[in-house]
Amino acid sequence: MIDRVFLFTLSTLGLVAGLSLPAPFVTRSFAQETTAAQETTAAQETTAAQDTTAATTSPDDAHEADAHTGEPHSHHDDSQKPKGPTREPANLLGKGPDGKPFELNEEGKQAKAKYVQAKEQLVDVLIDMRTVHTLYMNGEDQTPEALDRYRELREQSYALFDEVFDAAYEYLLLAPDQEAAQYLLTMLEHRFKHSNYSLSTMRASALLIDLGFNQVFLFQSAARSSVCVGEFETAEKIYEYLKPEDYGDLDKRFSYQMDDLKQQWAEEQKRREQDAEKELPRVKLNTTHGDIVIELFLDQAPSTVAHFIKLVEQGFYDGLDFYQVIDDLLALTGDEAGTGSGNSGQFIVDEHQRDGARNAFRGSLAMAKLPKGETGDFVPDSASSQFAIFFTPVPTVSKEQTVFGRVIEGMDLFTELRRVDPHKEKKKGQVVYPPDRIIEAEVIRRPDALPEPEYRQ
């Protein structure tokens, strides 16, 4: 059985970044299964491929299949797709405002060299990934070591994608470069489609807008990221500029909730300053998309945190799927049944009404509870093992649910999870890919003593 890690298609990953990779070599094990005529054709194609590189693709072509899973992007509605005119400013074609060729100063040359070096390193890692992937799929090396090697290379590629992104951004701050701008544009579209609204996303989106790119998704991405990192004044200016028809559902929600978001963020900043002075408990989730580190709010949700740590130390979360992953909202896990109906057998008392209770922001964790039919309300004291990690801030969560931690490392990777909606009707003949999962959960920092969890009687 093919491990689900190999559903990640690295060729598409290379294309989505606008990189040129050498065309894949047709391995012997595959060629032996072809007819004589097919072997001749394959050999000709292989010879030609060795002398050329694969062509880059447009963002739309690259996203016919998910960059990390091969899954079609069927979960995005039309309102989330880039709209409006697209143009590339003349001053990004290697010329200055006066039309003369742009000459790099020493700082610009160093920034360019850093960008080029990072890009070359990324291409090398992607080629190594392709080799491991091809050998595995052709049955030549399906050892556990091959899987581990693939995961290791994939982790490196994630880090290098971000390194190239940051290097391209720093380079564009100093000099016009069409290739660097196109890389940022392509990766920003990918981030937009995966709800990755980080600080670097905000800055890069704003830079391209300043340089004259006017795709609507750039404005939406800049505004949404600004909200997620607490730059509300910037978000409001962008929303004032956008036409009503350019608002997506998330933009409408943010605009409506802006006052609540501002107030909750101000409170959160004070609490995070206090958190920095403490050694709060931490848990690492090793997932099929890499590691994330969670910091737990022991002071504001002591019972919930103690219960969560107990489950982690018991191995309860190991192997559990992220059975529901919704764009611009959240990822749910913690259910052994994978349907949303499971629990640990114990139900903890709510803590959302405690003094100093936390609110839900990008990366926050909240305990899931049993719903009261279709009312939108929840059964009190019904949290057990299931929890959500939020992609965006949701001010209303803390009215009925306990927020007990936040992601402090790996949030950008976490947004890459395969989207799953168990309530969405499946089309006849539709290929359904397995969801991402927690491989292992591990407590990496905890106090010597924890309070006793308070359970519902």
Notes on the protein architecture:
With 457 residues, this protein is an alpha+beta fold. Helices cover 41% and strands 9% of the residues. The chain has helices at residues 10-16, 28-31, 36-50, 59-62, 106-137, 144-174, 178-193, 199-210, 216-228, 232-241, 249-275, 302-313, 411-414, and strands at residues 282-287, 290-296, 324-326, 330-333, 364-367, 387-390, 403-409, 438-445. It has an eight-stranded antiparallel sheet with strand order 3-4-6-5-7-2-1-8. Helix 8 packs antiparallel against helix 9 (216-228). It is globular. It starts with 9 loop residues before the first helix and ends in a 12-residue tail after the last strand.
**Rough outline:** globular
Computed structural class? alpha+beta
How many strand segments?
Answer: 8
Mean pLDDT score: 83
The termini sit apart by 45 Å
- Rg to the nearest angstrom? 24 Å
The run of helices and strands is HHHHHHHHHHHEEHEEEEEHE
Tally of alpha and pi helices = 13
Strands ordered across the widest β-sheet:
3-4-6-5-7-2-1-8
Q: What does this entry show, briefly?
A:
This protein has 13 helices and 8 strands.
List the main descriptive attributes of the protein structure presented here:
disordered N terminus, 9% strand, 457 residues, single chain, alpha+beta, eight-stranded antiparallel sheet, 13 helices, globular
